[in-house]
User: Fold these one by one.
Assistant:
Number 1:
Amino acid sequence: PVYTSREGPVLEGEFRERTSNGRYKFDGSITQVDQRNDLNEKTGQEQVRGHIRGTGRFNIDDTWKWGFDAFRSTDDTYTRQYNISSLDTLTSNAFVEGINGRNYAAANGYSFQGLLQDDNPGLTPTVLPVLDYSYEGEPSSRGYFALDANVISLYRTRGLDTRRFSSTVGWHAPYVAPAGDVYNLTAQLRGDLYWINQGSDQFGSVTPSGVDGRLLPLVALDWRYPFVRNDDNVRTVFEPIIVGVLTPYGGNHAAAIPNEDSRNFEFDDTNLFALNRFPGLDRVEGGPRVSYGVRGAVYGLGGGFSEVLFGQSLRTKDEPDIPESTGLQSAFSDYVGRVTVAPNTLLSFTDRFRLDHETLQVHRNEVLTNFGPQYLRFSVSYAKLQGDPTLIGDREQIALGGTAQLTQYWQTFGSWTRDLVDEGGTLGAILGLRYLDECTEVVVSFSRSNFQDRQIQPSTSFSVHVRLRNFG
């Protein structure tokens, strides 16, 4: 049971079991409270609220396994109001997958529950099936063959239905020259076929009914020249990198091919040298281009290391299919990079950034550092994101956190998050004390949240959690 001073009691339960070939777990909750409207006003009626969540993983044999993840709530604000989850979309998934050497196959099905106020259930798709297959041949002196294929169907009760078949065949030829520089030649041919039933997606885009497709050849050459130097207990690496891609422009057919999986686009250090920077398959990056950069690293024999990556992308002309706010649309892209410093277990620091290619203004900056021994550990994170306003808008915030192990069984912890945009103020803070032994866990915490969404209002909470551990 969970007892609250304002909303009454909540009954929570959990069931878990380990079977001969896997494990599964379910948890859920239920309560009956006064019904409130979107203005947090009581309507005079009562309402049953709750959630159910489950996960399972099972082995079929040495190659195949299957599993599921399920998460559903009675309404939009319940899971956040009762500190069950901070997700704004609940995802349920069932899958079967197999891995055999270099080959992979999977079948998935997805269902979503959007919890944002402007989510429209009729426009939220059910995805069934999603079929993936990846084949990679045995390497030879001339390279190796690779095949990737995907089939997906999206259904909506009121809106756009999409079926897509996508396949990429390619030949990869890695080569290490006598001088030590490393080459990788890639030749690919990608084909996509779409079958559309007219309607609008969750973003308001309308696509007419019909069948459409595209065929896109690509040739790429990846060149790297790692210089390595050993000095006593330190190894230093300096590596220039150049990746050239030759592929035709176009292929996105924006009026006939919907964009379901490539809207959340970000250009950063992780995809600087990727052959296609779009995260999904609905959009392709067209046109000749070159990405270049340098990586430097220092490795200690004791396990510590530091690393720097910095680079840019160049294309022959602007690419209108890439969102302007990503920093990749123009001929010269923004600069992206990463700095990592982790000399020992007492300190780790990572800074990922994107700089304007003309003014060097910081468009995106994400910093995360952890320091201190295990018994007195602190963390500081900072994020500045200037993104597409249709997605998340501009954000800038800082978060501090820490834990202190007072004795063998007692620990104190705390965190504080502040919005740095305009007069955002404190987003949330928590201070708590935890007792933990082999059988019992007791947590006493004091928290403040300024999150607001319909029935959820800014609030200050004092909570006590008691848990008996290791039943079964």
Number 2:
Amino acid sequence: MGLNCLALACSPRRHGNTSILARKALDGCRDAGGKTDFLYLTDYSYVPCRACGGCDKTGKCVVKDDAAQLFEKILACDRFILAAPIFSMGICAQAKSFIDRAQQFWAFKYLLGRRLFDSSQRKGIYISCAGTRLPRVFDGALQVARYFFMIMEIELAATCCYPGVDAKGEVGKAPEILEDVYDLGRKLV
């Protein structure tokens, strides 16, 4: 049986650049023998973390919405691809809002002193595009992505950040970028 490979596309723009790249990376996973699943974050309804402390005693979020379904899928996968573009020099709001809901796992690990897995061989990649080429445009997003992978106990095997990619579907005209993420998807499996 192949490894379960999940991609979460976080852009509010369906079929945008990061979504295209996530699908291409999943193609690499599939061609290497992985079972693949692609999700659009915008298909799910969730609210931001309320900082209510409801997860402090149990490690489970008390807010009842679709975030729980998404986290179940992420916890069940062997390989994870997070694809989120840069908006205003940071990870897009949709991704950040969802990642903030991982507070429950922080509580589980650091307040309750438990681990999500006894041992974890889980790996993943972060994919991003930015319309600008400003220096350090990916710095903030990379910090958030690294935290998310760490708290979910997924080894961040690679980051793929492409500046100067803005117009919808523009990345589809960049075969070297498509080949790059495809190869990383293959190597992930």
